[in-house]
Every structure is written in C-alpha cells, then in structure tokens.
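Batch 3, record 17
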Amino acid sequence: MKLDSHLSEKKVLAQLRRQAAETFGPMRTFEMAEALEITAAALARIAAAPLDLTDDAPDTSGVDAGGTA
Amino acid sequence: MTALYDLTATEIVRHVRARELSAVDLVTALLERIARLEPEIEAWATLGADEALAEAAERDRAAEAGQIRPLHGVPIGVKDIIDVAGMPTVAGFAPYRDRRADQDAHVVARLRAAGAIILGKVHTTQFAHADPAPTKNPWNAARTPGGSSAGSAAAVAARMVPLALGTQTAGSVVRPAAYCGTVGFKPSYNWTSRQGVIPLAWSLDHVGLLARTVEDIALAYDAIAGTQTDLAARRDTPPRLVLLTEFLERAEPDVRDHLLDVADRLRAAGATVEEGALPVDLDLWLAVHRVIMQAEVAAVHAEQCARHPDDYGKLLRQEIEVGQLIPAAYLLTAARLRRRIARAVDTALGEVDGYLLPSVSNAAPRRNTTGDRTFQAPWSLVGTPAITLPTGLNSDGLPLGTQLVARRGQDAALLALAAWCAQALGTIAPPDLEPPAEEPEPEAVEQPAAEEAPVADASTEESAPAEEPAAEPAAPREATPEVEPEPAPADPEPAAAPEEETAAAEATATEPAAPDVPDPGAANDADEAEETPERPAES
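Prediction for the assembled complex:
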C-alpha cells in the first residue's frame, strides 16, 4: 500500500482487506473486519498528518529515552 | 485495632521495625484471606505459600537481628508476565503452563532485595493484551477488574496483598487500578529494566505499581529505582494543573461530573486548576499509538501465533494478524509523529505541574471487555508518568479514579503531586468483602489513630450474572493455597446503591491522614481494548 496523504479511509480499508484475504484467507478477513476498519482509520489519519520532508526523524526507541529492555 | 490484611506496606514496615509484627503472622493472615476470597475473585494464577512463609521466617529472623530493609516483610503480588524464580510464567497462554522461570525479573529481584516477600503470581489477560482474564472486580463480580493487570488490581483492592506489580502498554496499570479503586502508577518509560518481563510492544511497555496509598507506591518505586522520593516536597506549594477538556467531553456523565467535583475540591485546597486543551489532536495521538502497538505486537507474536493459533485469544490474534499488514512507511510516519507529539507534550507540561483528567471514560463495565484505553494510552505513547487515585464512587457503588500526568522523567515530582492531591481529596473505603455472619476476628495490631483509613460505608453490589470472558484462561497451576478454601460468601442481591449512599460515602472519605513519608533513616540497600468507543477491549 502506498503512503499517500490523499488516500481515503475507504481506499485504505479496501487495500487492507485485500492484503488480509491474501495473507490469512477470506474467513479470517471476515472475522477481523472490525479490527481492519479501526486500523484503516488510524492509517489514513497518520498518512494525512502534515509532515514536511525535513520534519522529525522517527522515534527509534520508545520515546528516545534509551533502551533497557 | 487494624486487621493484618488492612495494613499498608508503609504500616507493615513500621510495625516490623517496631517489633510489633511478625512477617510469618502477616503472610499467614493474607493466605487465609486469599483462601476465603479467591473462589469469588480469582486474582491469583500461582500462590507460593510455602516459599512465602519461608521468606517471612527469614525476614523475622533478620528483624530480630536488627536488619530491617525498606520493604521488610511486605508481601507482593507479581503480574503473571513477570518472572519469579521457581514459579511458572504462564501469561494466560496454555502452552506456557510449564514455563518455569530460572531467575527473578529485574524488578522482582529489586523488591526481594529490599525485603519484600513474593506471595505469588496474579492473573493477567493473555500476554497483557485485551482478552479478559478470569478475575472479577472485588466491588462487583459482574464487572471487569480492567486489564491487563487484572489480578494485580483485584488482589490489592480485596486486600489480599498490599502491593502488586503490573505492566502497561496502553492502559493496563491505570485503568484496572481505577476500576478497582486502588492507586496505580505508570512511571516514565524505561524507568527500570524490563528484563524478565514478557514483552507485548517493546517501545510502549512499562512496568507499573499498584497499591492502596501513594506512600506505598513511593516506597516500592524507591526500592526498585534506588531513589528517595520526598512526598512532602510540595507540601506548602499548591500545584498548578490543567484540566483536559478533550477527556471530559469523551467521559460518561458520572465520570465527568466527578472530575469536575474533584477539580473544585482541589481548588478549594489551594490548587490552581484551569481548563485547557491538549497540544496535539487526540485522535491522531491514539492512531499513532494503535499503529505502533499493532506492529510491535505482531513482531513479538507472529511466529508463535502461527504455531498456536487456537491458543491465542480472539482479540490478541486479530491484533497480531492486522499488525502484520501495516506498511513500513506508515509505521515510520507514526514514529515521526510520535516524536513530534512527545515534544509538544514536554513543552506543555513544562509550564504546569501536571494534567488532570479522569483515569478512564467510565466506571468498570461488564466482564466481556477490559475497558476503555482512550484516557491512558496517550501517556504510554509518550512515556510520561501517570497515576490514578481512587477519589469517589458512582451511583452504582463503583470506584471512580482521578488521573494525574507529569512531564517525562518527573516521576518523583508526580508522586509528590499525587500525595498533595490525595491529602486534599481523601480516598474511598475498601469494598465490603466481609462475610455477613459472625466470623472469628482476624489477628490485629494496634493502629495509631492518626493513620486510620477514612471510613465510608461503601456497599458492594452484585447484579446480573457475569458474562464469560472472551478467551479461555490458561488452566490453573499447581501451587495453590495451602489453606483449604472456605465457601465463597453469598452474593449480595443486585441493588444499585442509592445516590444518597454514594454521596455520603464520598463525603465521609475526604479527610485522610497526612501523607506518610518513607522513613529517611531507613537504609535503601537494594539497589499493560480498548477503547475505545470502537472496539470492545484493550491492553
């Protein structure tokens, strides 16, 4: 799925469903329908958030506090 | 006279230090209480009765020799995703039934070194995610204790143990603590090592503490972190707090009204409380948390889930499978946004002493869910410390919590803030779990009048039969109570407490004793449903 700030939640969901069906089969895709919807909404919201090319780099260890797992 | 099971950790250490209390007597009393209440509450996954009694005897001998440690003789419950040497770590996952830990997790080792006694392992939702544990809420067995630290919260609320370890990845310490009417503290991210703790989502997992008082939380925090928190640090400095309106708008009416009342009471005590907004859109914040958590949960569990799909709870399996579908570019964008959100929160919290908000959007719902994580997950994402205080009961007699949040790294400052607020707000009386008929008086110790808990006659209620948890809990383990369990007390008839009773209970619970500062002379010689409106579960 491409990262596109103009991708609608509906289109993200359609792509997630297609991937889920290919990966886990149609029955599991049906069973996880609600979870897919929630995640699609989250992904669409994240893609639409304004981030410039030079804005923040990814947080790589939790909250960048160092990592003593 | 205070029953031994009513003693807080701070009181236990004080009595042990004064040679007024034997650790063996205390552990025996708690084991008897667990044997009586456990059939109803189901808080414990494994009890180490023999080991605990042996440890208690060692603590008594050390006390006789004058060797008193900061948590000397304090019994502790450990969430069953945290290793305790010699005990199974099942994590609610049947294939782990025989997975026995070789050594203590770091946090357990720290507590033990400080003199604590490990009483056993308390139930968790499976792998600290969202499929409900078997545990019931001590205030109402038809209600969830929350999750994922279900057993930790229920055991502390039922006064089976004064202190318990939990973990939080979304809301798993603060929410169950609030649902069960205890104090729950999620310190800053990485405040201590998570060695020996089964991960759920590495960058979000926090070890947390549950107890009945802020003093006890500070005592355990200091023992683990090697700090000396001064709870009286802001005794003469009323705090400046921001009451977050986004959460009030999303809270159920009883929760919103309670928080507004709490704000008024804090103002009356001298605090400055002003309504304000988050520096970041809450829905984006929650979306970032969800995507990072799902991807990490998938990375942790995908392979094992593929081998044992039928042993995984429904909600966790969905999380793992959906998490595998998240594209890398989206995950990295979420991680960029996470940094931006954390920085904005740092800036905003740098100008005040803390945020004030409800701990959860609702009182404990029924047992087919672990509750709503919307009010806790934001703080897990950005690693800020958060604490819930039990500050009232709703009209159904269920606990309501008040949450305080401070800037990253300001754990001690948040504990001092919580101590100030707890003194101003008071607390709630524990759930009434005593048998209706005459029972022999439990062993008791003298309690200084100034330290007596505030008295409020908060009745428990029992309503419709509990719904079955969504996931099959792991089979019970071998180590069981040494004491033959008595039959569970008869369930009281379902009857919502009248509002007048609740109001009376809250009114009588507003004058607690002054915060008890850990003895500075004591040597500190020891070195995670949601939601969500959208989905019925959480972690």
